[in-house]
Amino acid sequence: MNKQNKSYLYLGLCILLWASIPVASKKILVELDNLQMLFYSTIFSCLIMSSLLLRQRKVTLSRKYSLRDYSVMVFLGFLGNYLYYIFLYGALALTTASEGFILAYTWPILVLVLASVILKEKMTLKRLIAIAISFLGIVLIVTRGNLLAVSFTNLTGDVMAVVGAFVFALFSVLGKKYNFDKTLSVFVYFASALFFVTLTMFAFSSFQWPSSPVFFWLLYNGFLVNGISYIFWFKALEYGDTAVISNALYLTPFLSLVYISLFLSESIAWSSILGLIVIVSGIILQSVGQSRKSASLEANRY
Prior knowledge:
By secondary structure, this protein is mainly alpha-helical. The protein has 14 helices and no strands.
């Protein structure tokens, strides 16, 4: 198997796992709240990433970085592995799986806006048009296709999903400035997230041992969706073209709709499908002609 095919294989595995986020979340949130879900999932993610760190013999790399570097990693972990999931899981607990996940996947649109503000990257007319198109897709979803009468499935859940997208966009833009070792930095991200979510859970929730069915989904979410998927992602980047890989990730919400229909028996509104198509159209428009450097900004999420 050549490098390109290996890249597509690993990328396909990533998409298959990430697309299942709303299904796993809904299965877990039936019994646990969003803080408890994040607490357990992060524990399992820390375990799998620490095992990977030991297996790759990268523990000694910890001496390479300064206290300031670790402060940056902790802050990025707070943004991308704690705060983002607080909003994402909170949104999925309140709104439908399809609506919440699709809205959360608007983060690439917000990356463009934040990159122009924070990194002073040029905002072209094409990018402005792309943002407008994708915004129309958001409106289609939250109004359920009735643009003249605003009607939300759950306004709080929808807002949380969009705020979560903003948080991860900020995480992606700020992360572009740094070039930490991926395995070590991801471990620190999860470790710092575990610290924050533990404090938050005991302050605003409670410790609850999950039942066997929910425990299975927690293992799946922690080990695979938030853990092993990182390994697949690194392999995809190693063997393939970053621009192609990054753009292909937008297949994830499409597959999520299929998962949601099959495993949650949740009807998918035609407006959600149409809105998703419009959002992805805007993202594809702004992606056409981008350099590999620009695409790596979005790849920073993983």
